[in-house]
Design goal:
With 141 residues, the chain is of the alpha+beta class. 37% of the residues lie in helices and 20% in strands.
Length: 141
């Protein structure tokens, strides 16, 4: 069902953690009922110099979050804001049809983190910022 790159990123996700003094934070999803992703970024000279994430979700959600961080690290904010769900999916060699929505998590949370840095707020109304623990049906990275 999952390709080799997805399995690698699920079993060994990159850039997992938090950045306490982050310059921007993006949150997508609802920890009480499904996939949830929180992304922290540090920015210097308009470039993402550090990026971390925590994800509650299925293997595809964790893998797409991990690869998104690799894609964004070192990019200037304009380049990073252009990272799309399609680009994330392509970097993983594709996703099963029923899991394609997972790539949206990474792209959306990254964009929110960038907006948070640039404008000092959330890109969407009603963004969930809870630090709730994962439910029993999902792995957390």
């Amino acid at each position: 069902m999952y390709g080799e790159k997805i399995i690698q990123h699920f079993l060994n996700p990159q850039n997992v953690g938090e950045i306490p003094d982050a310059d921007g934070v993006g949150v997508v999803g609802d920890p009480s009922c499904g996939d949830y992703l929180k992304v922290w970024i540090k920015v210097e000279d308009n470039r993402i110099t550090k990026i971390k994430f925590k994800c509650q979700g299925c293997p595809a959600a964790i893998a797409t979050s991990s690869v998104m961080t690799e894609m964004a690290l070192g990019k200037d904010l304009n380049e990073a804001a252009e990272i799309s769900a399609e680009m994330i999916e392509e970097a993983l060699g594709g996703l099963p049809e029923g899991k394609r929505h997972c790539s949206n998590l990474g792209a959306d949370a990254l964009y929110e983190a960038i907006i948070s840095h640039v404008f000092g707020g959330s890109a969407r109304r009603g963004s969930e910022t809870s630090n709730s623990s994962p439910d029993e049906n999902h792995r957390q990275a």
